[in-house]
Predict the structure.
Amino acid sequence: MGRFGAQYINGTFYHDLHPVAGKLLIGLSEYVSGHNGSFTYTSGAEYPPHINYVFQRASMAVIGSLIVPFAYRTCRFLGFGRAAATMGASFVLLDNAL
C-alpha cells in the first residue's frame, strides 16, 4: 500500500482497479509524516531512517477507528433510531473484512 502512496506523492500516473480513497489517505499520511516518495516499499526491504512508519500505521488506525462513529451518525442521519444506529455501528465494529 505504501508504494501507491509514494506514487501519489511523486505524481506518477498508474492504473488502479480499486477505489482510490484509501490510497489517497495512505498518501496523505505518508506526506504528513515527511515521506518524500523516494522509497518504493519493495517487499523485504529495510525501511530507511527517514520513513516514519509508526506514524503512518497509527494514522491509518485512527482513521479506521473513526469509521464506527461515522457509521452511527450516518444511520442517525438516515432516520434510524438509536438502537438501529447502534446495531449498524456494531456491525461495522465487529466486521472482520474491513
User: Anything to note?
Assistant: The two ends are 15 Å apart (CA to CA).
